[in-house]
């Protein structure tokens, strides 16, 4: 009897801790209602609790909006960046991120990227890893289907044409997989971070008292190059590099 | 003047009578009609000198104030030829504060000596009657004859609440000429003077603690505190000359009022957003001169604040007009009275509004919040929304000047709204890329394709080799036919048995060696069997069995039992299979 009770208790705790999709959906719906009623803090708490187990670009975007409304610009930027990683082409996220960035003190001119890179970026477009993965699956299926039909075909010309098409499809499959891999790398890459403390001195060495190279303010995005003794070596968009004390960053 | 003349006449009589008085005994006494009074009550003090005509000195009154007097009185009496006379002088005194007062000794010089009266003590109790203005009482205590008071309508106020300050002169002197005035310093107040004209004496006397004064209001101001804390209204100072007459150059005096403090409280912190400093008892009226116009015709929109309060410090209201309405700076009209009651009246803002396009417009309610001093809380008044109906303009010059198309005006910038509905939630960290399902999905078509190719190749070779397939099937077909024969054997159907057995034997070799029905003969069979090692005896047996079967089929001859024939056929087919496979 006691074992039964114990196992029941375990079951309850397990189901209690692991949120189901339905529960998360209802949390999000309540959050949206609170947001529209102007209770932004409540909405943020609800969205955050749903975000502990589940995620989606739209949810991250909503959380970013809440932070923005609560005047917490660095966190708003952080969540917009996270949303953008999952959905790189989302126009709403980009617009709001742009607005949030206008509130950041530091203005850093980005290094001009070489033209091949931007073309590459254009081809990659705003699709995320999963989208490219799905495309790879379809392209792969079509490629083999096409190949099978070509093999089965009797007419010489039709066969040749189909082989051409399947060659293209093969190229498409390979590229899709490559893009998916690239996006996935970006997604799991945690080298980028947002500065959370209002002001931080960036120094030449990873210790207090070394030369201050420049001063950054909250909301600025940096790339973490390496870490030493909890200090982080960061790089700005304009190429400047320096060491930053711990606990002033949050990784995207 | 009249009093002096009377005194002179009296003295003349005394002078005439004095020879006869000389022999009389001289008396000198002081007396009061009562020894204890209350503040504001009077005591009569009289000094009498009997049988002498010398001048006496007035005593010090020890803090008591002379209300009236001195009055002189002389009397002569002639009784039996003896003349006696007395002179007395009387003052009416009062006290402004309770306490014990001593009227000092009066002195008179008679002959060679000085005669003194006894000092008199007067007890003054607290006044039971109507309380005099404490402000005036305080002024009176500085100088009972002339003083200035600062009267405030209230000593405690909120920031922005109006206080009326009245500066009043109290004087008991007959003549007064002002030479210099210094207004109080007003730190932290916004002041507005009340128009009074030239100060003049109030026709009514006012009594302070029993003393009568002539009063004049020197100045009146409306003070509006601008910050919280203890704010001070400093002294009002006036230099003047009193008692100036033809004979007298008068006495210069400096009269100072007391300084007054006002405790100013900050307004409560929960001010609504529309509050911009209005304090008092106010109302707001929003009016448009018309609500149905043509495009490009002007509308006059008037916002009027009326009531009592700091009207002069009010700011223009924020009009939130639809962007298609053009708005001009307002004209401000004040009808504000500043008087003893404070500042009251109205202030109007007249806006000229010109709709540039036709359509129905709603002018949103204008909110006005003021701090209500009666209830000590904020009160918000919202006007009714105004509906404007603008019909198309008649194409006058003004309408044509503007281009028909205008850019969409950006009125504000804000982030876009959140996503609602299904957010397509996924467990964190779960990606399609690299998952087992994805790899499976990717490799499934490849595997399917390879299988397809294999199947196809097998089928192709089989199609290419029809004979082979016949040969492969030969055994199966023959066994099928043999089983038919077995059925016939069991049912003792002779014709069917031999039919089935014959077909089985013929069909088998036909299929096995790729022979047509016409090609099945002894020579052909032998040749084919000969290709296999040990095929000859099988061929001989097979040919003999076929012949036996044919004999039984087409002629009524049965040299062997059917069972034996059947067994032999099955055995021969098995032996042939063994030969082919070996």
Task: Tell me about this structure.
The complex is a heterodimer of chains A (252) and B (582). By secondary structure, chain A is α+β, with helices and mostly antiparallel strands. Chain A is built from nine helices and eight strands. Chain A has a five-stranded antiparallel β-sheet with strand order 7-6-5-2-8. In chain A, a hairpin with a 5-residue loop joins strand 6 (231-235) and strand 7. Chain A is globular, with a radius of gyration of 24 Å. The model of chain A is unreliable at 1-16 (pLDDT under 50). Chain B folds into four domains: 2-125, Immunoglobulin-like, CATH 2.60.40.10; 134-265, Immunoglobulins (Immunoglobulin-like, Sandwich); 275-395, Immunoglobulin-like (Sandwich), CATH 2.60.40; 466-581. In chain B, a hairpin with a 2-residue loop joins strand 26 and strand 27. The model of chain B is unreliable at 19-23 and 397-403 (pLDDT under 50). Chain A binds chain B through residues 21, 24-25, 28-29, 32, 35, 50-51, 53-56, 58-59, 61-62, 65-66, 68-69, 92, 95-96, 99-100, 129-130, 132-134, 136-137, 140-141, 143-145, 147-148, 151-152, 177, 180-181, 183-184, 187, and chain B through 413-420, 422-428, 431-434, 438, 441-442, 445-446, 448-449, 452-453, 456. Strand 1 of chain A pairs antiparallel with strand 32 of chain B, so a sheet runs across the interface.
Termini Cα gap of chain B: 179 Å
How many distinct domains of chain B? 4
* Unreliable stretches covering 5 or more consecutive residues of chain B: 19-23, 397-403
> Radius of gyration of chain A, Cα only, in angstroms?
24 Å
Instruction: Quote the CATH topology of the largest domain in chain A.
Output: Serine Threonine Protein Phosphatase 5, Tetratricopeptide repeat
Tell how many strands the DSSP assignment of chain B holds.
32
Q: Determine the most extensive contact between two protein chains.
A: A-B, 48 and 29 residues
Biggest sheet features of chain B: 7 strands, mixed
CATH architecture of the largest domain in chain A: Alpha Horseshoe
Q: Please count the helical segments of chain B.
A: 9
Estimate percent helicity of chain A: 55-70%
Number of discrete domains of chain A: 3
The CATH superfamily name of the largest domain in chain A is Tetratricopeptide repeat domain
Number of DSSP-assigned strands of chain A: 8
CATH architecture classification name of the largest domain in chain B: Sandwich
Could you tell me how far the N terminus lies from the C terminus of chain A, measured between alpha carbons in angstroms?
Answer: 49 Å
β-strand percent of chain B reads 35-45%
| Overall form of chain A | globular
Q: Report the structural category of chain A.
A: alpha+beta
So what's the CATH class of the largest domain in chain B? Mainly Beta
């Amino acid at each position: 009897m006691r074992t039964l009770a114990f196992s029941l208790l375990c079951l309850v705790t397990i189901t209690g801790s692991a949120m189901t999709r339905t529960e998360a959906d209802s949390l999000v719906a309540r959050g949206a209602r609170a947001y529209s009623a102007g209770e932004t803090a409540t909405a943020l708490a609800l969205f955050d609790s749903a975000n502990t187990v589940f995620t989606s670009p739209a949810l991250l975007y909503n959380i970013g909006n809440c932070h923005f409304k609560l005047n917490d610009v660095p966190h708003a930027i952080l969540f917009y960046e996270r949303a953008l990683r999952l959905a790189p082409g989302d126009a709403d996220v980009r617009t709001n991120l742009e607005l949030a960035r206008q509130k950041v003190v530091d203005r850093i001119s980005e290094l001009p990227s070489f033209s091949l890179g931007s073309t590459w970026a254009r081809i990659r477009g705003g699709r995320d890893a999963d989208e490219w993965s799905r495309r790879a699956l379809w392209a792969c299926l079509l490629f083999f289907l096409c190949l099978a039909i070509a093999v089965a075909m009797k007419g010489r010309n039709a066969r040749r044409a189909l082989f051409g098409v399947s060659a293209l499809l093969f190229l498409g499959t390979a590229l899709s997989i490559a893009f998916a891999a690239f996006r996935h790398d970006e997604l799991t890459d945690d080298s980028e971070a947002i500065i959370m403390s209002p002001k931080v001195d960036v120094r030449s060495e990873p210790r207090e008292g070394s030369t201050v190279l420049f001063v950054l303010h909250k909301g600025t995005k940096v790339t973490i190059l390496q870490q030493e003794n909890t200090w982080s070596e960061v790089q700005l968009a304009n190429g400047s590099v320096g060491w930053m004390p711990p606990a002033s960053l949050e990784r995207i | 003047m009249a009093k002096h003349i009377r005194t002179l006449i009296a003295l003349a009589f005394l002078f005439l009578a004095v020879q006869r008085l000389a022999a009389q005994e001289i008396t000198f006494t002081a007396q009061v009609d009562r020894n204890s009074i209350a503040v504001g009550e009077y005591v009569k003090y009289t000094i009498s000198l009997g049988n002498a005509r010398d001048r006496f000195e007035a005593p010090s009154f020890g803090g008591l104030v002379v209300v009236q007097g001195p009055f002189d009185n002389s009397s002569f009496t002639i009784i039996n030829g003896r003349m006696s006379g007395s002179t007395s002088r009387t003052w009416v005194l009062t006290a402004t504060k309770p306490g014990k007062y001593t009227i000092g000794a009066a002195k008179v010089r008679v002959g060679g000596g000085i005669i003194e009266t006894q000092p008199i003590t007067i007890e003054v109790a607290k006044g039971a009657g109507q309380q005099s203005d404490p402000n005036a009482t305080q002024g009176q205590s500085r100088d009972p004859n002339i003083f200035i008071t600062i009267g405030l309508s209230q000593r405690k106020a909120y920031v922005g609440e109006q206080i009326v300050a009245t500066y009043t002169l109290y004087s008991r002197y007959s003549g007064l000429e002002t030479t210099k005035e210094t207004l109080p310093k007003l730190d932290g107040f916004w002041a507005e003077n009340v128009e009074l004209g030239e100060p003049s004496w109030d026709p009514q006397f006012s009594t302070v603690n029993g003393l009568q004064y002539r009063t004049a209001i020197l100045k009146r101001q409306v003070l509006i505190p601008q910050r919280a804390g203890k704010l001070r209204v400093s002294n009002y100072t006036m230099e003047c000359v009193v008692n100036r007459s033809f004979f007298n150059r008068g006495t210069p005096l400096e009269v100072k009022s007391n300084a007054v403090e006002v405790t100013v409280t900050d307004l409560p912190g929960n001010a609504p957003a529309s509050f911009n400093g209005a304090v008092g008892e106010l109302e707001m009226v929003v009016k448009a001169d018309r609500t149905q116009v043509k495009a490009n015709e002007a509308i006059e929109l008037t916002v009027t604040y009326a009531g009592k309060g700091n009207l002069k410090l009010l700011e223009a209201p924020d009009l939130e007009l639809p962007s298609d309405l053009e708005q001009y700076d307002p004209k401000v009209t004040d009808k504000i009275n500043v008087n003893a009651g404070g500042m009251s009246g109205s202030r109007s803002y007249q806006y000229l509004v010109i709709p540039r396009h036709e359509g129905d417009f709603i002018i949103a309610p204008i909110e006005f919040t003021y701090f209500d001093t009666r209830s000590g809380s904020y009160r918000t008044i919202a006007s009714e929304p105004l509906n404007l109906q603008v019909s198309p303009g008649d194409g006058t010059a003004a309408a044509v000047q503007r281009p028909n198309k205008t850019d969409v005006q950006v009125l504000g910038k804000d982030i876009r709204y959140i996503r609602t509905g299904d957010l397509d939630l996924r467990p964190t960290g779960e990606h399609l890329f690299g998952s087992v399902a994805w790899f499976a999905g990717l490799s499934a078509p490849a595997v399917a394709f390879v299988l397809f190719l294999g199947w196809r190749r097998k089928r192709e070779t089989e199609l290419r080799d029809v004979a082979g397939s016949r040969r492969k099937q030969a055994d199966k077909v023959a066994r099928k036919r043999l089983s038919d024969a077995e059925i016939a054997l069991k049912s003792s159907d002779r014709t069917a048995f031999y039919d089935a057995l014959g077909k089985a034997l013929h069909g088998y070799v036909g299929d096995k060696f790729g022979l047509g029905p016409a090609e099945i003969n002894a020579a052909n069979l032998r040749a084919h069997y000969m290709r296999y090692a040990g095929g000859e005896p099988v061929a001989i047996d097979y040919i003999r069995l076929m012949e036996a079967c044919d004999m039984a089929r087409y002629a009524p001859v049965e040299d062997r039992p059917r069972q034996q024939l059947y067994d032999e056929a099955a055995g021969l087919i098995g032996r042939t299979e063994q030969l082919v496979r070996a």
